[in-house]
Specification:
The chain is mostly beta strands. 7% of the residues lie in helices and 51% in strands. The chain has one helix and nine strands, in the order E-E-E-H-E-E-E-E-E-E. The radius of gyration is 15 Å and the shape is globular.
Length: 141
């Protein structure tokens, strides 16, 4: 995949700034308290989930069933995590996303930016936004 091809998978030091022995999630209040999780590794990989989950138990079961867990990479720049990941869109094609998070503390991240690099609005602009969404840590397993 374009996102992870030729990325170094070196130790980033992220585990000295935040917890990575679990996943980060956001409660989607508008979707009946559903959860949107992702996992960061200490070597610049990320697993972003393309599903909305109703409980932490559902997330744990899904994570346990995955054979190839990481779908993107991140770069750590000071207190900012810059992420690129891919979502399978159609046969042989992917949507590429970029996100940025600011580290609030060792168990809280704040999403400050989101861009779908391969998605176009009807007027031809890429889909982007500033989110300011809070993601909390959940220890797993």
């Amino acid at each position: 995949m374009i996102v992870s091809k030729n990325f170094a998978k070196d130790y980033t030091g992220i585990d000295t700034l935040i917890r990575i022995d679990g996943y980060y999630y956001r409660e989607n209040i508008s979707e009946s308290k559903s959860l949107s999780p992702f996992i960061l590794s200490k070597n610049s990989e990320i697993q972003a989930f393309f599903f909305i989950f109703k409980s932490h138990e559902d997330i744990k079961q899904y994570i346990s069933s995955q054979s190839k867990p990481f779908y993107g990479n991140y770069v750590l720049m000071g207190d900012t995590i810059k992420i690129r990941w891919a979502e399978k869109y159609d046969l042989g094609s992917y949507r590429i996303f970029s996100e940025q998070y600011v580290i609030v503390n060792d168990t809280t991240l704040k999403k400050i930016w989101f861009l779908c690099e391969t998605c176009d609005n009807p007027d031809g602009r890429k889909i982007d936004s500033t989110r300011n969404e809070i993601y909390k840590f959940f220890k797993f397993p």
